[in-house]
Amino acid sequence: MAADTFPKLLEERARRFGGRPALREKEFGIWRTRTWADARREIHELARGLAAAGVRRGERVAVIGDNRPELYLSLCAAQCLGAVPVPLYQDAVAAETQFVLDHSGARLVVAEDQEQVDKILEARERCPEVKKIVYTDGRGMRHYGDEILQSYQSLLDAGRAHARAQPDFISREIAQGRGGDAAVLLYTSGTTGEPKGVVLSHENVLVTCQNLVGFDRLNEREEVLAYLPMAWVGDHIFSYGQAYCAGFCVSCPESAATVMHDMREIGPTYFFAPPRIFESLLTTVMIRMEDAGAVKKKMFGFFLGVARRVGADILNRKPVAAGWRFLYALGRWLVYEPLKDAMGFGRVRLAYTAGEAIGPEIFDFYRSLGMNIKQLYGQTEGAVFVTAQPDGEVYPDSVGKPSPQVELRFGDNGEVLYRSPGVFQSYYKNPEATAKTRTEDGWVHTGDAGFLDERGHLHIVDRAADVGKLKDGTLFAPKFIENKLKFFPHIKEAVAFGDRRDFCAALVNIDLEAVGNWAERNNVPYASYQELAARPEVYAMIADSVRTVNRGLAADKQLCNSQIRRFVVLHKELDADDGELTRTRKVRRRHIVEKYAALVDALYGGKKHCFVEVAVTFEDGRVGAVSGDLQIMDAEMCAPQPLAEAA
């Protein structure tokens, strides 16, 4: 690749696609566009401004805020100087922000607004390396007198002055960059402990992105909506790396609250979301249908049945009888296309999901509507792509074949290992963890257990450390069970226990929107999440879902004895601010086991009730406590049965 760094690739994109849109942002209800030529000019001015502020090659520049064009431009501006951008989670509390700032040693921070500036100022007391904070949104900043602060616009002004004094500076700096240089420092979600800083080079990101641009035939006409955290590797690949490689446009929503509305306006052709987004959209659809009239509900149910029967086959271009094709075409006109338009998927040509296993039923639902949703498997340490599903080989139970230039092998315990051009350089300041994860010859230990099927597709069973056995020797795969529970729209989160125990038990979170809507329609009064979760009608609803999950597990020869025997509905939502989930909403299993130890003991001790009091963190940073006397319910077990009988 001639352009082996992002700044060099920017030059090519500005020459080839100069007049095409590169970035859009909705502001005050109006979409504003920057072309690739505009982006190049602003990035160069910004890079010069950073240089005038003292940023030098090899230093770290932190970026924090919602998805905003200025923040994406800041990534490339830092790279123009040979500095390394460090995206931070915008919803992280001050202590989490302080950890990343301190560990990375960032000298300058580009922050979106007053909220993020306040967070950085609080963390700065323990981060002496931070010398400058640049804010992009000046609202509320008028009376801030700290000399460390500087506006984004003034940084651009300084860049223009720098250009007059040193006109050849940027071209010289960009020319010094090499593909093997560090391009970004991304911190892992910290599922099993403190987050680790993953160093990815320009080649790691660009070669991986270019391979997948060819794999999925992406081009400059794609439209993408950037709404996921910039600190997450998925957003960095889809909204930054692939955008530069293919030359397509990335749009930033007005706010987190308007994402769905903005998505309908933009009509993305290429879309990525973790399973929870697709689950949430499906929940919203089902809630709305409960409020629809009888005729509309009957029509929806009928054509949904048609879609489930033949939709996936039609999408995969398999032979389907003419009568079914006619019904499906009618359903497309009456139901499927209006439904996809309502969700913002009307123009989606390709969608991916990853991060967690998606429920097969949810996956099949979207494909049955004619939406080409596929699964991939990846890690921050591999620049996301390890496996992906080729068109025509899309199966709900696999995560695809090895991506271009990716090799797979398996450890003696079934752990998946891979080697690819995307393999990370190191964990920043952590050579011990680097050596433990990446072998000398470039193989990466994923920590996930899996296997290849006869079609050459990878199946991920669970985290290798989490897969265990019940006392009777039955295989116990907690994530598999949790995903089956989360298929139900009224269950938002679940945590299963059972390794080295007599049976499987589960903690369940209800979905407040779905269950609240149900409660209103059925005249079930409640005043809070805690009160709603404790209602006997809600427990009955969850018990019915657990019974359905157990019926499915009973048909699995390996998992039939790992049915859920006891469960409890938690009195609070699991929350990242409380350390129960990562910022990407992955369950921090060990933390939950410790935090809810009394409740877990009660589940296995035969108790019917358990008083629980746990600490919670409010949005303003205050710490409080929430308590409750939780009911523990026995679930209905199902007798193991052959697969034919289960069907």
What integer is the average pLDDT? 91
Gross morphology is globular
**Would you give the CATH topology of the largest domain?**
Rossmann fold
Strand content: 15-25%
Enumerate how many helices there are, as a single number. Answer: 22
**Kindly, what is the distance between the CA atoms of the first and last residues, rounded to a whole number of angstroms?**
52 Å
Largest sheet: 5 strands, parallel
Q: Architecture of the largest domain, according to CATH? A: 3-Layer(aba) Sandwich
Number of extended strands: 28
Helix content: 40-55%
**What would you call the structural class?**
alpha/beta
In CATH's first tier, which class of the largest domain applies? Alpha Beta
Instruction: Write out the CATH superfamily name of the largest domain.
Output: ANL, N-terminal domain
If strands are numbered along the chain, what order do they take across the biggest sheet?
4-3-5-6-7
